[in-house]
Write a structure and sequence with these properties.
With 241 residues, this protein is α+β, with helices and mostly antiparallel strands. The protein contains 8 helices and 11 strands. Strands 1, 2, 3, 4, 5, 6, 7, 8, 9, 10 and 11 form an 11-stranded mixed beta sheet that branches. The model has no long low-confidence stretch (mean pLDDT 96).
Length: 241
């Protein structure tokens, strides 16, 4: 089990936040003890549970935790994907470039327009859409400062979306943040996912990503582009006064 003092969320959400990542072999007694301890200190508690641990789910229900989403983890082996002719034409029509400072400012503007709306903060009545937007902007700024690579999707010389990419160990990359800009949300171009191609060009061997089950369209797009499901985590929260 990992207990993470999410100090960055104090800035984003203005509440003391903790994230608990439960492992498959954690006992109910250990989990109960940890929850009792952190509930005395934190006001927003996020608990992530392996999908196979139904006993923990029942424990959390009994302790008045609310289910908010499933996080689905995918892996890509970077092998070429067979696409339909229509999909391949769309894929070929979109290019990728590394973001300039101006491009990153554009990303902030697009986030403020509301391109993210399915995450647990956006959907939580204890928060607001504006808080969720600023959280994504702060997250993006933090990643830029730590050296995470930001890329634009480009269609007909116009930026249509972005993704973040970080190498977590030699040859292993994670893409954890990205979206299609508002103007192109209904264009179908969101089905184009070129992250595996970029990772392969960088010499990578493996790529991971995760997405909320609240966003089924993106899950479909990942599967169409050769990603395979690795694991699922249930996410529960509790708000303390």
């Amino acid at each position: 089990m990992k207990v993470i003092d999410a100090v960055w969320e104090k800035r984003n959400l203005n509440v003391d936040t903790v994230e608990v990542e439960i492992e498959l072999d954690d006992s109910l007694e250990e989990i109960t003890e940890v929850l009792e301890t952190i509930e005395r200190k934190y006001h927003y508690i996020v608990v992530k549970v392996p999908a196979r641990r139904a006993d923990i789910m029942h424990l959390l229900y009994g302790e008045r935790y609310e289910y908010v989403e499933d996080m689905v983890f995918f892996i890509h082996n970077l092998k070429e994907v067979q696409r339909t002719r229509v999909m391949q034409r769309m894929y070929n029509a979109v290019s990728v470039k590394e973001c300039s400072d101006q491009d990153i400012e554009e990303i902030y503007q697009e986030i403020r327009k509301g391109i993210f709306s399915t995450d647990r903060i956006s959907l939580d009545p204890h928060f607001s859409g504006e808080i969720a937007k600023e959280r994504y902007i702060n997250w993006t700024k933090d990643e830029v400062m730590r050296g995470t690579k930001m890329y634009n999707y480009v269609y007909k010389d116009e930026n249509i979306g972005f993704f973040a990419l970080r190498e977590v160990e030699k040859g292993v990359y994670i893409s954890f943040l990205g979206g299609i800009f508002e103007k192109y949300r209904a264009s179908g171009l969101g089905a184009v996912v070129k992250v595996p191609e970029i990772v392969a060009k960088l010499g990578g061997k493996k790529l991971y990503t995760e997405v909320s089950l609240n966003n089924p369209g993106q899950i479909k797009n990942l599967i169409l582009n050769g990603y395979t499901l690795e694991k699922t985590r249930h996410v529960y929260v509790k708000h303390k006064e």
